[in-house]
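Exercise 7. Given the encoded structure of a 250-residue chain, write a plausible sequence.
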């Protein structure tokens, strides 16, 4: 099987125990990477993904950390440096939702989502950039079309993902002289546990707005993330690629 990555490429995927994160980890392994799987609490599910990666003949490393906790993130990257000498690819996928209309949203709901989705992305990107500073590499953020176009009931989530997009564009300019590429994948409605929380009426309305007429799959997002992370996209940085069936047009 042809691969996108040179033999021995080491990659980190955050939030890799399920959904889009698990699919990205598997796609990277299929394309030639050894993969470190970050998870916060689902050790069993992360190990299942790791076993599938090992079945592909690649190394898999489990690294537990809450991405919103600065000390835990620093410890995770120290482990990666000690075990593998660092990583050349980081796909920063961790995310949570706590939906509700802004006027009725509690500050705790706001902070929960911002803390994981935006602060967590900052902390993990900062450490990835440090590790790649002398050798180059690729960072891919997983954002959302909510962060581009907004979505009713997701003020906190949209703000967090919009912040991720702006941060990634800034980091792409700062890191380019060091040979580090930074890009964003912005999924739309993807068939995962997170989207299953959407009320049926809202889901029906959303499907009507998708030209392809269906939800996407985690594997479809994963292949795009793997491409952007790989040398096949060596002249691509600072870009946001939507994977949404044509739902938004910006």
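Solution.
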């Amino acid at each position: 099987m042809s691969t996108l990555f040179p033999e021995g490429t080491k990659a980190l995927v955050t939030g890799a125990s399920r959904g889009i994160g698990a699919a990205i980890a598997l796609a990277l392994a299929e394309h030639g990477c050894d993969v470190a799987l970050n998870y916060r609490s689902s050790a069993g599910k992360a190990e299942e993904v790791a076993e599938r990666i090992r079945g592909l003949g690649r190394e898999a490393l489990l690294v537990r950390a809450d991405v919103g906790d600065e000390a835990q993130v620093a410890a995770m990257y120290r482990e990666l440096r000690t075990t593998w000498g660092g990583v050349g690819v980081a796909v920063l996928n961790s995310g949570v939702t706590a939906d509700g209309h802004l006027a009725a949203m509690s500050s705790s709901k706001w902070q929960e989502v911002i803390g994981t989705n935006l602060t967590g992305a900052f902390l993990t990107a900062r450490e990835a950039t440090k590790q790649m500073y002398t050798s180059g590499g690729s960072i891919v953020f997983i954002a959302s079309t909510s962060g581009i176009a907004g979505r009713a009931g997701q003020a906190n989530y949209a703000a967090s993902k919009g912040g991720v997009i702006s941060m990634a564009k800034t980091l792409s300019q700062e890191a380019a002289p060091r040979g580090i590429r930074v890009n964003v994948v912005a999924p739309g409605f993807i068939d995962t546990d997170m989207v299953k929380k959407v009320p049926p009426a809202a889901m029906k309305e959303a499907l009507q707005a998708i030209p392809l007429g269906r939800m996407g799959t985690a594997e479809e997002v994963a292949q795009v993330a793997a491409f952007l992370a790989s040398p096949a996209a060596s002249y691509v940085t600072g870009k946001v690629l939507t994977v949404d069936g044509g739902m938004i047009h910006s």
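Remark. The beta strands are 10-13, 34-39, 60-64, 89-92, 137-142, 180-187, 240-243. Students should compare their own answers with the one above.
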